[in-house]
Design brief:
Layout: H1 2-21, H2 25-35, H3 40-64, H4 70-92, H5 96-120, H6 134-151, H7 155-166, H8 171-197, H9 204-224, H10 230-252, H11 257-294
Helix pairs in contact: 1-2, 1-8, 1-9, 2-3, 2-10, 3-6, 3-8, 3-9, 4-6, 4-8, 5-7, 5-10, 6-7, 7-8, 10-11
Family: Belongs to the 4-toluene sulfonate uptake permease (TSUP) (TC 2.A.102) family.
Keywords: Cell membrane, Membrane, Transmembrane, Transmembrane helix
Organism: Brevibacterium sediminis
């Protein structure tokens, strides 16, 4: 029972991050399940089935708050569905123990990608040129859907960061559209795992715990997307993902526990420094915005 409560809290926190950031529910949940010893296919399958509920509630909530661009959702969803089925079928064919360090490698890369993308945005305010084209959205959907099933996460890191960096869609609509289209991706991934693993391949208690926590958090996250600084959440979530998966990989290659903890300690110091840097950027940007609204000129360097 204690483990299920912890998993419910994991689902709640992961959905709060995902719903306000447009990424990290799958990556965060799968990372923690792998760290707890769950096989890669079973972990990703549990996450995708729980996402059937969390993404549905999240999509409805984002729609109510006006955070969804339905054209973007319509174009992304189909390729994402196809990619999710392909990725889940491939993952189910792999040996669980042998696959764990490789899946952790994918998750590690996604965590670094999340941090890098949001650090690269700096303090600049985005400008919106035009809506994203189908030529851009289709490959994003295919790649994101495939990685989402193989790594247990990837739809948000690929889709959200690509759309945000393109400057073609308002940030809150990027988050809302990615979260809403993720329901179709979760359907595709779940079907693929169900066909490949059968119903006995699912740990339904894990699915239920993640689902309950995620559903509770989804409406709050859709509201928070207008309030919380995305870059702080991105670096925070990315750091957790990096640290957990580095630990898994180092243990898999047989590194001693003292060396593992020294490495993790060094990475944690870098992570805290990045968080402090992002908080300073956010405060400076908020000061500039407040001054602009008041009609006061702020010197460079603030």
């Amino acid at each position: 029972m204690r483990q299920l409560i912890i998993l419910g809290i994991v689902g709640l926190i992961a959905q709060l991050i995902d719903g306000s950031l447009g990424m990290a529910y799958g990556v965060t949940s799968t990372t923690l399940l792998l760290a707890a010893g769950t096989a890669p296919a079973a972990a990703s399958a549990a996450v995708h089935f729980s996402e059937l509920g969390t993404t549905l509630v999240s999509g409805i909530s984002h729609h109510k708050f006006g955070n969804v661009d339905w054209r973007t959702v319509a174009i992304l969803a189909g390729p994402g569905f196809v990619g999710a089925i392909a990725g889940s079928t491939f993952l189910a064919s792999l040996d669980g123990e042998a696959a764990t360090p490789w899946i952790s490698g994918i998750l590690l890369a996604l965590g670094v990608y999340v941090i890098w993308r949001f650090l690269a945005l700096g303090g600049a305010r985005p400008t919106f040129k035009s809506r994203p084209s189908a030529k851009m959205l289709v490959p994003v959907g295919l790649i994101g859907g495939t990685l989402d099933s193989i790594g247990g996460g990837g739809w948000g890191p690929v889709g959200t960061t690509t759309l945000l960096s393109s400057g073609r869609l308002e940030p809150r609509k990027v988050v809302g559209s990615i979260d809403t289209s993720e329901f179709i991706v979760a359907v595709g991934g779940s079907l693929g795992f169900l066909i490949a693993l059968g119903s006995q391949g699912f740990e339904w208690q894990i699915v239920a715990a993640l689902l309950v926590g995620g559903v509770i958090a989804a409406p709050f996250a859709a509201w928070l997307v207008k309030l919380l600084p995305a870059r702080v959440l991105a670096v925070a979530a990315g750091g957790i993902i990096v640290l957990t998966n580095v630990r898994t990989i180092l243990l898999a290659i047989g590194l001693g526990s003292s060396a593992v903890w020294l490495t993790l300690g060094g990475l944690a110091l870098v992570w805290f420094a990045l968080l402090a840097h992002i908080v300073r950027i956010e405060r400076a940007a908020a000061k500039v915005r407040k001054a602009e609204e008041a009609g006061v000129e702020v010197p460079v360097g603030g």
